[in-house]
Structures are given as C-alpha cells and as structure tokens.
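Listing S7. Sequence submitted for prediction.
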Amino acid sequence: MTEPAERTHEPARRSGGGPSGPRPGPGSDRDPETGRSVREIQRRTLGVLMATVAVGGAGTGGAFSIVAVLADEITGSATLSGIAAAGMTTGAALTAVPLAKLMARSGRRMGLRSGYLLALAGSLLMLLSTVVDMYALVLVGMAAVGTGSACGLAARFAVVDLAPPADRARTIGLLVGATTVGAIAGPTLATGPFTVVARELGLEELAGPFIFAAVVFSMAVVVLDRGLRPDPLLVARRLGDGAEVPRGRGGLLRSLAIIARLPPARLATVAMMVGQGVMVATMVMTPLHMTDGDQSLRVIGFVISTHIVGMYALAPVVGWATGRIGPTPMIILGGVISFLGAEIAAHTPPDVAWGMFAGMFAVGLGWNCCLVAGTALFTAAVPTGDRVPVQGAADLLMSASGGIGGIAGGAVVAWQDFQFLSHYSGLFGAVLAGVALLAYLGNTPGVSRRASRV
C-alpha cells in the first residue's frame, strides 16, 4: 500500500486532539503523524542513507575516474581536461546551498532525491558527449554529477536529524564509512564491466562509466524515494526537536554570519575546510608526482585506493572515538594526522612507493577525523531553527576549499614541485591543530574541555 505523502508544514495542533484523543507532543518517542517509534525511524533512516551514499558514491567515483580522459580526447588539451575534472567540485559547491534550502522547505527526501536526479541528468549529458564529442556537454554534465557529491555530504547531516546527541558522532561515522564500498567499487566497475556494456551497445568504451553512473544514480533516487519515509527532518519538526522552517530572510549571508558568530560552528567549519583542502591539494597531484618517478599505473592506483580507505573505511571507529573523547580533541588529532601525512609525502622521492602509501593514507585519515568530528560539533552548535540552511553554507565552504586546493595544487607544482606543495599544505593541518588546542584549553564556549561532549 502506498504511504501517503507527508506534509512539510504542519499547522499547530490543538491540545485537545480529535476523536482519537491527544496526539504525542514534543519530547514524545513516537512520530505524531505516523505513530511509529522514533528509534525505529532513525534505524531505518540510517540504513537507507548508508545504502544511498554507497551507490551514489559509486556513481560520482565512476564518472570522475574517466572524465579527464574524455575531455582530453575531445579537446587535446591537458588544461581543459583539468578544468573538466574540477567540474565535480564546482558542481558540489554551487548546489550545496540550493539543496539545503530545498530540504529546509520540503524535507530531506525531496532535497536528496532532487540532487541525485540532477546527477542522473548530468551522467546522461556526459554519455551524450561521448557520442557528439562536445566539450561543453562535458563541463555541464560533470558539474551536474557533482550534485551527487553534494548529496553525499548533506546526508551526514540528515542522518542525525533524529539521533540522540550522544549517538551523533557514531552515526555520522557509520554513514561516512558506508561510502567506502562505492568509492572503491565504483571506478572498478565503471572502467571494467561497463566498458563491455558500452561496446555491446555500439558505443565507445569511454561511454561505459557514464552508463554505470546513470544506473547507480537511478538506484539512489529509488532507494531515497521509497525508503526515506517518513522524512526524518519532518518527523523532528513534528516532535519539536529538529530544525523548523528557517525564520526570516538573509539566505547565504545570514548563514555565514551565524557560523562566524558561534565559536564551535566556526571551528567545525574551519576543520572541515582544512581537511578538504589538504586532502584535495595533495591527492590530485600524487599521480603526477609518482609518474615522474616512473612508477606504474597499477602502483599509483593502489596508492589512491589506500588513500580512499583512509578517508572512509575507519569512519565508524573515528565516530565512536569522537563520541568518547569529544569532537574538539578529534579535530586536533585530525589536524596532526593531516600534517604528518602531508610531510611524509613531501619527503618521499617520486620513485619510492611506500612513503606515498603511508602519507596518502594518513592524509585521508586526517580528512576523516576533521569531517566526522567537525560535523558532530557543528550539528550541536547551530540552533535548530537555523540548522539546515547553515549546514548548506558550511558544505559550500568545504567544497570551495577543495576546489581551491585542487586548482592551487596544480599551479604550485608547476611553479615549484610536489614536495613544496605537500609540505605547505600540511602546515594548514598543523595550524588547525594548534588553534583547536588553544580553544580546547581555554574558555571558548562549546569548544573547551569544560564543554559537554557531543
């Protein structure tokens, strides 16, 4: 039986109730509209979103794995190929705030589903570009595919709409950990079996990854549409525990002002930005550095896979540890690990593999710590009435820092070398750790050791 659509804006209920008697109010353990247990809804939400980010991550990873090659085949320009590859980060940054506004207005399911539909459309544009050899389609399509990346980031906030404060970090860690499956399997499936599918359909092999992306983005849309019912954000509103429809106007500037005004939100956002910037700057230049040492593509692929494992696979452990020691100490640890990883990579000659394995794994793990702990701290810091749009602003800043890191990384390597880039990128992690430590040892509200753990 089809479940009735939820209302996104409920009128205030009278305390007397109707024929069925009083309805559960704020603080209840059941959803007033569906009668379901909040704990049951949260378990279902976690499972649905874990499945969604797994398949969605496979789609973005599969499309990204071959976009530079496609752009180079069409244009013959390495510069234009790099711009095309940066389209995913650009798309994620441009759609973070609009998606947050849509979710604030209509719920998580509507926002995430719309984002993955846009990513699906982008993958189809990319597929079309392999037929007509049009670079403009590559740019637009890859930016749209980047919306899938934005949805993956937004899901880490959606998964804690109904989570008890003590469980937020662990829940975020489980969700981020689920991305491991898609991040590793996506490029393998896209550039393997689906190239055969493309040939069978009479297309060139480069079309295969985009066929794969279209399939898995379609799966993400279906899983969200059928599984994220009831919508966790709307349930939280009905219970009086979640973000209401945002008050007043101001949009992005108002959201940025809220982040700047709240010390824990400010630290959390900076942590996520630094983790993203260090990770992207070093990761995108690692293959070029190793190629200069005549290392094989197979070894380079293993290094990137190890980096991805560091980013995602240990997220459940990081989430558990964040819940035990608090988010600020984990941010400090994330900054230190990012610094050490970048320094190891900076001191590794291009013909030595083991240092790149260790360094890039550590950079990925540092990103993991900053993302999980930063998200937990941010969620606890921002008032519920402003939380959803402000989350979108934080994701915009995080994605933009990654884009800047990627573009700056190429320019710095052209100016100096990879060692210079990795060393000075790592220093941002060291500065983050120092700033977070001072805040933790001081009297910063919501950040110091006297503050409650998330």
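Caption to Listing S7: primary sequence and predicted structure tokens for the chain studied. The chain has two domains: 38-242, 250-454. Residues 1-5, 7-26 have pLDDT under 50 and may be disordered.
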